[in-house]
Amino acid sequence: MTGLFTKKLDVAYDDTLIVKDLNLSIPIGKITALVGSNGSGKSTILKSMARIIKPKGGQVFLDGKSIHQQTTKEVAKQLAILPQNPTAPDGLTVSELVSYGRFPHQKGFGSLSKEDREVIQWAIEVTGMTDFNDRPVDQLSGGQRQRAWIAMALAQKTDILFLDEPTTFLDMAHQLEVLKLLQKLNAEEGRTIIMVVHDLNHASRYAQHMVAIQKGQVVSEGAPEQVMTQEVLRRVFSIEADIYPDPRTGVPLCLPYELAGAIPDVNPKKSISEELRIEQHLTSAKA
């Protein structure tokens, strides 16, 4: 079996087992969103699959080989990871940051080759950062900084890209800026993207594959239509929500309205007021 998958994966922090006996396969060439409540283990799973955390048991396989039995450089040529809230040294420019992505391809302590420089320039251009090439990273806006870090990951020229909550602490405009960039990279470059996402509607809109995690286990996985259901949201997030097609894209849209258990666990016929509320939301979304 090729691709990226786990087999009976166990991950622990000290003596606390966070992930147990996990079997998870990531579809190649798609955007996969890992979703779940705080402390569910989704970031731990992502870091384990990206070789940041060593598992207590089981294996992560990349193209048929155990990822933890490969050298750091071997892995870095196949996948890149953007951790949550990365920081750069003061004064480091965008081009200097992006150049770090070429490290896995360099021999010894040699200088950048012609190919390295071409890849760096490509990564800067494809992320729309050309105008900020010589700007210090610490002087950029939140969205611009995220794009600079994504450019560095792209400079590794890997087929797989991991991102741990890439839109955290960004305002709505910058969140969309980053997510649209990832969508473009997937569509035009064919990159396999695995990201931890808090916003369920962002996950549904920008990912073709979703994995709902609870207590380190997969509760549901598949297309957004399979995962974004009332039952799954009740079990994973302990919320009651209305689910209906987005009027623009057709993907499932979630409107949480109550904590699970606060109302009877039944599904009666919608009241006139509820129908009116959904109709009003659809009308405003189309405007």
Automatic annotation (TrEMBL):
What does the record list as coiled-coil region(s)?
A: none
The alphabetical list of record keywords is: ATP-binding, Cell membrane, Ion transport, Iron, Iron transport, Membrane, Nucleotide-binding, Transport
Source organism superkingdom: Bacteria
Which GO terms of the molecular function aspect are on file?
ATP binding; ATP hydrolysis activity
Taxonomic path = Bacteria, Bacillati, Bacillota, Bacilli, Bacillales
Its record classes its membrane topology as: Peripheral membrane protein
Q: What name goes with this protein?
A: ATP-binding cassette domain-containing protein
Q: Gene Ontology cellular component?
A: plasma membrane
Protein's GO biological process: iron ion transport
Q: Does the keyword Membrane belong to this entry?
A: yes
What range does the record give for the signal peptide? Answer: none
Q: Which Pfam families match?
A: ABC_tran
Check the record and name the InterPro entries matching this protein: AAA+_ATPase, ABC_transporter-like_ATP-bd, ABC_transporter-like_CS, P-loop_NTPase, Siderophore_ABC-ATPase
Q: What compartments host this protein?
A: Cell membrane
